[in-house]
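User: Could you write out the 3D structure of this protein bound to S-adenosylmethionine? I've included everything you need below.
Assistant: Certainly. Input first, then the structure.
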Amino acid sequence: MRKSLLDVLVDPVSRSPLTLDAGESADGQIMEGTLRGAAGRSYTITNGIPRFVLTDDSGQKQTERSFGYKWQKRDAWYSPEVQAACEPWFVKRHGFESAEEMRRFFGSHRRVLDAGCGGGYASSMWMDSSWQGTDDSQWYGVDISEAVDMAQERLSSMPGTHFIQADNLQLPFREETFDAILSEGVLHHTPSTERALKALAPLLTKGGKFLFYVYRKKSPLREFTDDYVRDAISNLSPEEAWDALRPLTKLGQALSELHAEVEVPEDIPYLGIKAGRYDVQRLIYWHIAKLYWRDTFSFEENNHVNFDWYHPKYSWRQTEEEVRRWCSESGLTITRFDDTEESGFTVHAVKE
Ligand SMILES: C[S@@+](CC[C@H](N)C(=O)[O-])C[C@H]1O[C@@H](n2cnc3c(N)ncnc32)[C@H](O)[C@@H]1O
């Protein structure tokens, strides 16, 4: 970390300023040290990253371990094929014309918080070598898990980047620090999506923008299977869960390779199924059980997607009404609400 990070940091418990107990290297980096807060609390800096996670919630700790594990499995998500599938999906949901437009958007903000940056995957879509961080354009990547070390490894060569390990429900930042917050697929992995949204909103300046993606509620059978499988899988270690999900991934592959379609003759409202023609794998995927398979991904990459869905203990799904209400209660005016994806809602809101 650089000393200038202290300008925006506070003790996450008392919200009072922190003092730094560490030496600076010749290039102005602080690799190891201690940040001291109120009432004798202290927070370590290791590998150049200040660490603030205090939660004792067992579900959150399991979720943290799960993501720490999956992000370090680079072979399962780092390929150009995965990037090629994810970037257009990200750009479209957020209503940008291109990755370039997205880069200009984030670059035009003074302080951007990536709240739950993981290994820096989403941000790497726009923060590539042409990103020019300056004193007027800084990016702060926060994650509860050790994935933030990977984000640092991938993105710290970009100017104006900062990495912090912390909990979105208890972040060590002064209020009204950021003029943009991105939280892509994160809020629903905390103990409460609502609490996470409400904890982040005060960190925005007036007029600041909040861009987030959260899972949406699916049809009843799919919701049942999601909870049922997750209850079983999330109790396994990450390694065991990865292996336990292989048969499920293989079934997704087998169904996909059928290349078979089925006509649903009439709407079945109580199962959330609409009349129409479906690929069999997609019909099952959206309405009965998530058995992810995509031909352009390797087997491990497909298994990674199923692991990402079933292993983290916290993975809440929300209704549109809930998301709109939580925004309104947080002083956020929604400016864009994308519900075109069955998987989730992509929301842009402005702090009043
Ligand atoms: C699906 S990943 C998304 C990562 C990144 N936003 C992206 O799109 O590439 C969800 C991330 O949320 C993080 N996370 C879960 N609970 C969190 C919390 N309470 N505070 C901060 N990060 C959290 C996980 O560690 C994980 O890296």
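The chain has a mean pLDDT of 94.
User: Perfect, thank you.
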